[in-house]
Write a structure and sequence with these properties.
The protein is α+β, with helices and mostly antiparallel strands and 671 residues long. Helix content is 26%, strand content 33%. The chain has an eight-stranded antiparallel sheet. An eight-stranded antiparallel beta barrel has the order 24-25-26-27-28-29-30-31. A five-stranded parallel sheet has the order 3-2-1-4-5. Helix 4 packs antiparallel against helix 5 and helix 12 runs antiparallel to helix 13. The longest helix is centred in the last third of the chain and has 20 residues.
Length: 671
C-alpha cells in the first residue's frame, strides 16, 4: 500500500478518495486553484499545493504543475478522480516518466478507448455489439452528411473524444445537420481539444445501462454488475441505480461477459465502466444492446455499486495500482439489495437546467447511516463558482428492494436543506415520485417525455410559504421590540392605532422578481396574527427555537421551517420544498427599465464563443443570437421577441459577468 498519494482533482471526488485513503492510513496531498483556496478538499488533505489561477486550463489541466506538486511533496502515486486529466493518456505517461504510479489504466488502454470511433472498431473485432454508424477518419462535412442519410434520421453526432454529454447533438433531419455539426465540433474542441466526430443511429427508446469492470496487473478481470443511468438531462446523468430494473440474470451475464471482453481486448487495469445502450422498444432483450463507450476511470455513480456489493472501489483502485491482485473473484461477488443515487446540482430546471452560481447560505444534508450516504465537496458557506461543475452532492440510498430504496430517496430529498442557490432538489423528488419511475419504465428520454409532470410552469407562492415568511418577519420584530423601551408607544408591534384596531401590510415579490404580493396582518386580542393571504385568511403563531428552526401553528396545523436570509431575499425550507421570496418596501422608489428597446443579459458568468447576428439584423422570437460558454457547457442565447439588433457590445472570446447586456435592440416603433 502507498504511504502518500496526490489527488489530481477537486470537490466531491477528491474528498471521496481522501476518505478511503484516511481509513487505510495513506497520507493525502490536495492540489487547488486560487478559487479553491478554502475548499473542503484542501481542508481535508494532509498537505495542499497551489497550482494556479481559477480557470482549469491554468490549473487542474496543467500536467506539469500536477507532476511538480507530487514530486515536491513526495507522493508515490496520483489518483486522477474523474474529469480533468482522468482519461488523459499523456498524463498517465508523464506520471510514469516521473516514476510516479498512476492510479488508473495504462496509457495504451486510455488511448484505445479515448477516441470513440477507433474504440468502436476495436470492440467490433472483439465481438462486442456496436450501434450502427459512421466512425471513419474522413471528417469532410459532405461525407458526414451522407453518412447520416445512409444511417437514417434521427442520428447522434458525437465528439470522438467526448463524454458527459459534451460535444453531442441529436439531429432529426438533414436541414439541422450543419448547425449541429458545428456545435458538436466546437464543444469537442473546447472541452477535449479535438473536433473530430462520429455519426451513429439514434435509438428511439433507449436505456443507458453500464457495467462496472475491474482488472488487476495479473490478468484477472471481473465485473461488479450493472447500473441503470437512463434518467438524463442534456445527455448528462441525473439519477442512477443498481441493479437495473427489469434486468434478468441471463441478460446480466451476457452484458457482463461483453464488458469483460472489452476490458481484456485493450489490456485494461484498474476501475472502468463499459457503457451500453439498450433498445427497449419491446423490453430488455439480450440481442438489443450495443457498446457506446468505455470510461477508463472511476465513475461519478460508483457509490451505487459499492452499496449493493459492500466493496470500496477506491480501495480496490489503490490495491490494484500497488500491484495486488483483485480482492475477489467473479464468483465471490453478489448483489445485495438496491441502491439509487441522485445528483444534487446548483441549477434551474425551469430554465433548461441552466447552472447557477452563488453562496450556500444553508447546507444541511440528512443524517448518514447504513441506508443513506452523502458524497459532497462543499460545506455551508462555500461558493458555487462559475469555474467548475455545479454539483453540490450525491445523495445515495440503499435498502433491501427498489421500492424501499425509493422511499428512502424521497425522504432524504425532503430532509435536504439548501439555500442560497437554486437547486434541482424539487425536480429530483418529482422524478422519484413519478409513477413511471416507480414502475421502472425507464428510457433516456424519460425527462423530456414526462417534462410537464416533472417541471411544472412556475406558479404562485403557496399561502403556507407566505405565512411562514410573514411569521418569521413578525416574530423578528417582536424580538427587536422586546429589547427596546417597554414603556414607549413606538416599541409596540401589534398594529395599535389611536382611533381603532390597526393592521400592517407586508409586501413580497415572488422568486422570479415579478409578481407583487400584499399580505395584510391583523392582531387578534387572543394573540397571534390573522393573515389575509391570496387564498384567504389564516391564523398564525409560532416561535423560533435555539437552533433557528421556526415552529409554526397555521390554522391548527403544526409545521416547521428553516428560514434563510440573504438581504431582502428569504428562502423558506419546509416539507422538502424550497420557496424563494423577496421582501419589498412599497414606499421605496422602484427602478424601471427606461430603455424602450429592451435588452438581453447574460444568465450567468461566461465566455462569448460565437455571435450569430450583426447590428441592423431583423430577428424573430426564439432565433439564436449568440452562444455563451459557462460552467463547462454551451448555452444558446435566443431573441426574446421579434426585434432589430441595435448593437453587440462583445466579440467571441470575451468574458462577461452575470447580468451583463449582451445584445441591444432598437426601440420598438409599435403604437
Amino acid at each position: 500500500m502507498f504511504r502518500k498519494i496526490l489527488i489530481a482533482n477537486r470537490g466531491e471526488i477528491a474528498c471521496r478518495v481522501m476518505r478511503t485513503a484516511n481509513r487505510l492510513g495513506v497520507a493525502t496531498v490536495a492540489v487547488y486553484s486560487e478559487a479553491d483556496a478554502s475548499a473542503m478538499h484542501v481542508a481535508m488533505a494532509d498537505e495542499a499545493v497551489l497550482i494556479g489561477p481559477s480557470p482549469v486550463q491554468e490549473s487542474y489541466l496543467v500536467i506539469e504543475k500536477i507532476i511538480d506538486a507530487a514530486l515536491r511533496t513526495g507522493a508515490e502515486a496520483i489518483h486522477p478522480g474523474y474529469g480533468f486529466l482522468a482519461e488523459n493518456a499523456a498524463f498517465a505517461e508523464a506520471c510514469a516518466a516521473a516514476s510516479i504510479t498512476f492510479i488508473g489504466p495504462p496509457a495504451t488502454a486510455i488511448r484505445a478507448m479515448g477516441e470513440k470511433a477507433a474504440a468502436k472498431a476495436l470492440m467490433e473485432k472483439a465481438n462486442v455489439p456496436i450501434v450502427p454508424g459512421y466512425h471513419g477518419a474522413d471528417q469532410d462535412d459532405a461525407v458526414l452528411l451522407q453518412a447520416a442519410a445512409d444511417i437514417g434520421y434521427p442520428i447522434l453526432i458525437k465528439a470522438v473524444s467526448g463524454g458527459g454529454g459534451k460535444g453531442m447533438r441529436q439531429v432529426d433531419n438533414a436541414e439541422r445537420f450543419a448547425n449541429a455539426l458545428k456545435g458538436a465540433r466546437r464543444e469537442g474542441l473546447s472541452s477535449f481539444g479535438d473536433d473530430k466526430v462520429l455519426v451513429e443511429k439514434y435509438l428511439e427508446r433507449p436505456r443507458h445501462i453500464e457495467i462496472q469492470v475491474f482488472a488487476d496487473q495479473q490478468g484477472n478481470v471481473v465485473h461488479l454488475f450493472e447500473r441503470d443511468c437512463s434518467v438524463q438531462r442534456r445527455h448528462q446523468k441525473v439519477l442512477e441505480e443498481a441493479p437495473a430494473p427489469g434486468m434478468t440474470p441471463e441478460m446480466r451475464r451476457t452484458m457482463g461477459d461483453a464488458a469483460v471482453a472489452a476490458a481484456r481486448a485493450i489490456g485494461y487495469v484498474g476501475a472502468g465502466t463499459v457503457e451500453f445502450i439498450a433498445d427497449v422498444s419491446h423490453g430488455l432483450s439480450e440481442d438489443k444492446f450495443y457498446f457506446m463507450e468505455m470510461n477508463t476511470r472511476l465513475q461519478v455513480e460508483h457509490p451505487v455499486t459499492e452499496m449493493i456489493t459492500g466493496q470500496d472501489l477506491v480501495e480496490w483502485q489503490l490495491r490494484v495500482a500497488g500491484g495486488e491482485p483483485l480482492p475477489l473473484s467473479q464468483d465471490d461477488l453478489v448483489i445485495d439489495g438496491h441502491a439509487i443515487e441522485a445528483r444534487i446540482y446548483s441549477e434551474n430546471p425551469q430554465k433548461n437546467f441552466l447552472p447557477a452560481t452563488g453562496t450556500l447560505h444553508r447546507l444541511r444534508p440528512p443524517p448518514e447511516g447504513p441506508h443513506l450516504r452523502v458524497d459532497t465537496g462543499v460545506r455551508e458557506g462555500d461558493e458555487v463558482s462559475m469555474f467548475y461543475d455545479p454539483m453540490i452532492a450525491k445523495l445515495v440510498v440503499w435498502d433491501r428492494d427498489r421500492a424501499s430504496a425509493l422511499r428512502r430517496l424521497l425522504d432524504g430529498l425532503e430532509r435536504y436543506e439548501i439555500a442560497g442557490v437554486i437547486t434541482n432538489v424539487n425536480f429530483l423528488a418529482a422524478v422519484a415520485a413519478h409513477p413511471a419511475f416507480a414502475a421502472g419504465d425507464l428510457e433516456t428520454g424519460f425527462i423530456e417525455k414526462h417534462k410537464d409532470d416533472l417541471i411544472p410552469a412556475p406558479g404562485a407562492i403557496p399561502d403556507q410559504a407566505l405565512a411562514l415568511a410573514c411569521l418569521d418577519l413578525l416574530l423578528a420584530r417582536t424580538g427587536h421590540a422586546a429589547s427596546a423601551d417597554p414603556h414607549s408607544p413606538w416599541a409596540r408591534v401589534d398594529g395599535w392605532r389611536l382611533n381603532g384596531q390597526g393592521h400592517d401590510e407586508l409586501s413580497f415579490r415572488d422568486g422570479n422578481g415579478e409578481d407583487e404580493i400584499m399580505v395584510t396582518v391583523h392582531y387578534p386580542s387572543a394573540g397571534g396574527y390573522r393573515l389575509a393571504l391570496p387564498g384567504g385568511e389564516m391564523l398564525a403563531n409560532g416561535e423560533v427555537d435555539e437552533g433557528g428552526t421556526l415552529w409554526a401553528d397555521l390554522d391548527g396545523l403544526r409545521v416547521s421551517a428553516a428560514v434563510v436570509h440573504d438581504g431582502d431575499k428569504v428562502t423558506i425550507l419546509s416539507g422538502g420544498r424550497a420557496h424563494r421570496i423577496e421582501r419589498t418596501d412599497p414606499m421605496a422608489l422602484r427602478d424601471y427599465d427606461l430603455e424602450e428597446g429592451g435588452k438581453v443579459t447574460a444568465p450567468l458568468p461566461g465566455k462569448i464563443v460565437q455571435v450569430h447576428v450583426a447590428a441592423g439584423d431583423n430577428v424573430k422570437k426564439g432565433e439564436p443570437l449568440l452562444i455563451l460558454e459557462a460552467m463547462k457547457m454551451e448555452h444558446t442565447i435566443a431573441a426574446p421577441r421579434d426585434a432589430v439588433i441595435a448593437a453587440i457590445p462583445f466579440s467571441p472570446g470575451e468574458q462577461v459577468d452575470e447580468g451583463t447586456e449582451l445584445i441591444l435592440f432598437e426601440a420598438s416603433t409599435d403604437g
